[in-house]
Amino acid sequence: MEAADNARVRFSLIIPAFNEEQYLPRLLDTVDVARARYDGGPGAIEVVVADNASTDATAAVARERGCQVAYVEKRAIAASRNGGARIARGEVFAFVDADSRIHPDVFNAIDRALATGKVVGGSTGVKLDRMSLGIAMSYVMMVPLVWLTNMDTGVVFCRREDFEAIGGYNEKRLFAEDVELLLALIKRGRARGQKLVRVRSVKTTTSTRKWDKHGEWHYFGLMFRGACSPFLSAKTIERWARAYWYDDRK
What we know:
Blueprint: E1 11-17, H1 24-37, E2 45-51, H2 58-64, E3 68-71, H3 77-87, E4 92-95, E5 100-101, H4 106-115, E6 119-123, E7 126-128, H5 133-149, E8 156-159, H6 160-165, H7 177-190, E9 195-198, E10 204-206, H8 209-214, H9 218-228, H10 234-246
Parallel strand pairs: 1-2, 1-4, 2-3, 6-9, 7-10
Antiparallel strand pairs: 4-8, 5-10, 6-8
């Protein structure tokens, strides 16, 4: 999977990972297919797994599959993403969570979007492993924000130069670091007449493990806590964020 040393690296796919030995092989299987489908050739795509202080075999799995491994000790997903970016060589950075599966044509689709010169970056959006009433209603809650801003999740991408210019992800944030990054890209693109896009033809498939663990309707409570966060102490917010996003897979 590793790109040849003398090859032009067009894409760096950066995967933040904490104890992801179960999900990572499933993602990398889809990455192999997408690299083989890429018009620029598989050698133009490198895969970087940012091992965020895992206690399982995440790093070993990544190395066995030919990925570059960045070791990141600070337990924050923003730090993990930035750590992967620091060793990445690609012209375009693409970020995806380890419990996802990417579309076979995702790299070609991103290339086509960037080639227009009108795009500063964007995302693919997601579809979920399974659906239920609670999950569907949670999804509906997010739709107006996505439509209004073009901010989405899945594979999030931008040019290296723009990522570095805005300073990457804010490592002070334990959550919503992806939203802050996309807002910064919107601002940077506006100055050049570029916009954020959703490349919906190549949606990423992602797991529903948060719903599996916390319940079909838990997202509503999560959104309520988020809305109340301006009135909570920093310690309370950190304790809540770590319990939900960081302590699940010790």
